[in-house]
């Protein structure tokens, strides 16, 4: 198996990956970063969203070997010095989660949304941008409120 390396949450990490190994499998099973979730096998749920070279992607749709040398940020990389990222804090504050399974992907998508769309986000934009993230618990209302508040705080 080829060995690959990537900078994950600011640290160089290496491991072996088969040509067919998905990025999400590499992150979870090889690197042991289990905050990134797998919620489907059809690339629909968004629980697996991470940032690769600064852009949000569904890590179940990328091969690990294709990300050799990339910079990757996972949900574990957002908090700094024991302090939650403003978007994480907003989800906590606004009860933007219930079971929490979708939450890492929601937050990684939301942070990317702010980078692309700015800090002033209206409800329509947030709902449209979260099209690729499915939540089976919350009914989305509090997630939208959390993203709006988190964006303003970023
Ligand atoms: Fe990637 Fe569902 S696990 S979209
Ligand atoms: Fe349970 Fe979203 S909080 S799936």
Description:
With 154 residues, the protein is α+β, with helices and mostly antiparallel strands. The chain has two domains: 3-77, Beta-grasp domain (Ubiquitin-like (UB roll)), CATH 3.10.20; 86-153, Orthogonal Bundle (DNA polymerase, domain 1), CATH 1.10.150.120. The chain contains five helices and five strands; from the N terminus they run E-E-H-E-E-E-H-H-H-H. The protein has helices spanning 23-30, 86-93, 103-117, 123-129, 141-153; strands at 3-8, 11-16, 49-52, 55-58, 71-73. Strands 2-1-5-3-4 form a five-stranded mixed β-sheet, sandwiched between helices. A hairpin with a 2-residue loop joins strand 3 (49-52) and strand 4 (55-58). Helix 2 (86-93) packs antiparallel against helix 5 and helix 3 (103-117) crosses helix 5. It is globular, with a radius of gyration of 15 Å. The N and C termini lie far apart (41 Å). One FE2/S2 (inorganic) cluster binds next to loops. Residues 97-102, 135-138 line the site of one FE2/S2 (inorganic) cluster.
Helical content class: 25-40%
The total of beta strands comes to 5
Structural category: alpha+beta
According to CATH, the fold-level topology of the largest domain is Ubiquitin-like (UB roll)
Proper CATH architecture of the largest domain: Roll
Outline: globular
Q: What is the CA-CA span between the terminal residues?
A: 41 Å
Provide mean pLDDT, rounded: 97
* Number of discrete domains: 2
Radius of gyration: 15 Å
Instruction: Give the strand line-up of the largest sheet.
Output: 2-1-5-3-4
Bound molecules: FE2/S2 (inorganic) cluster
| Strand proportion | 5-15%
Element order: H for helix, E for strand: EEHEEEHHHH
CATH superfamily caption of the largest domain: Beta-grasp domain
Q: What count of helical segments does DSSP give?
A: 5
